[in-house]
Amino acid sequence: MEDPKTKREPKPGVCRICSCTETEPCTPPCAWADETWTLCSNCAEMIALIAEWGFSSPRPSFALLARAAKEAYEKAPVPYRLVIPSPEEVRAIAGGAH
Ligand SMILES: [Zn+2]
Ligand SMILES: [Zn+2]
What we know:
The protein is mostly helical. It has helices at 41-56, 62-75, 87-97. The chain is built from three helices and no strands.
């Protein structure tokens, strides 16, 4: 099904879409959706959703979808992403704890 000439060879144990692993899973935690362990359930679900959208929309634009998704991603509070707090915030956190 997949072109064997694709440059980046999927590595078993690493999701080929989001690069999640056994030790660093998605939030909420995912499971392997394929037998080769290169696609997680989170991404498999997303692929199914996008495919459904593509088939059911009159003129789906993947470019616009990608742009909107990027904007939403940048705006979203992502609790599992490492955020470096500013010195003021560190002081506020430290001050609040005592
Ligand atoms: Zn994934
Ligand atoms: Zn995952």
